[in-house]
Automatic annotation (TrEMBL):
Coiled coil (residue ranges): none
CDD domains in alphabetical order: WHTH_GntR (cd07377)
Signal peptide start and end residues: none
Pfam family, one: GntR
Name listed for the protein in its UniProt record: GntR family transcriptional regulator
Length: 216
């Protein structure tokens, strides 16, 4: 006898609502610290408050929003501790990914394709999406399913990290990011593990210094 399960329709709607809100945050519609009101979101999306509430809980689990009883739900504004923790965790994951890519020497066509897209990015938000896509491609090339899942668990927060960065300094980001990622791709292709790890560490450090510098 099969177990009874509830219909999935409502859950599917909540997922769609979460996707819409997430996209709005990533497109700059809701800046870090912005309040997300259930009633307003439900009206804008043409749904009831139930799916919106579920969607906000999903986004809270991703670290993209925060719910507090006295403030309601707001888009996460990264603190100094958040930046440090996210940077250290990302470093640990990325070191393994880079080492695996260098050792496996896989086809890097997808990584190269993302670098090419960076040259055509129309604005900061498109560049951020390309930036994330580059790192997605690195994790895919590593060929380690659980490592890729660990990256996906923090991906939304890294996206928020990059949005916070361009809010502080967009001109330097747009100007330097394509060449910076081209250099990273070339390091992976060259097969020198130590050199590649160092370049990726410098890449992360540049981004973190922008955010940390804003707090002093």
């Amino acid at each position: 006898m099969s177990a009874h399960v509830a219909p999935a329709r409502r859950r599917g709607l909540a997922d769609e609502v979460a996707d819409r809100i997430r996209d709005a945050i990533f497109d700059g519609g809701y800046a870090p610290g912005s309040q997300l009101r259930e009633v307003e979101l439900a009206g804008a999306l043409g749904v009831s408050r139930g799916p919106v509430r579920e969607a906000l809980l999903k986004l809270e689990r991703e670290g993209l929003v925060r719910g507090e009883w006295h403030r309601g739900t707001t888009v996460t504004a990264l603190s100094e501790v958040d930046v440090a923790e996210l940077d250290s965790l990302r470093a640990a994951l990325e070191q393994l990914a880079v080492a695996l890519v260098v050792d496996r020497a896989p086809d890097l066509a997808e990584i190269d394709a993302v670098v090419a897209r960076m040259d055509r990015a129309a604005d900061e938000h498109e560049m951020v999406r390309c930036d994330l896509a580059f790192h997605d491609a690195v994790y895919a090339a590593a060929g380690h399913r659980r490592l890729r899942e660990a990256w996906e668990a923090i991906r939304s927060q890294v996206h928020l990290f990059l949005l916070t960065r361009i809010g502080l300094e967009s001109e330097g980001y747009l100007a330097g990011i394509p060449a910076e990622h081209r250099e990273l791709a070339e390091a992976l292709r060259a097969g020198n593990r130590d050199a590649a790890l160092e370049l990726f560490a410098v890449h992360r450090r540049r981004a973190s210094e922008v955010l940390r510098g804003s707090e002093h």
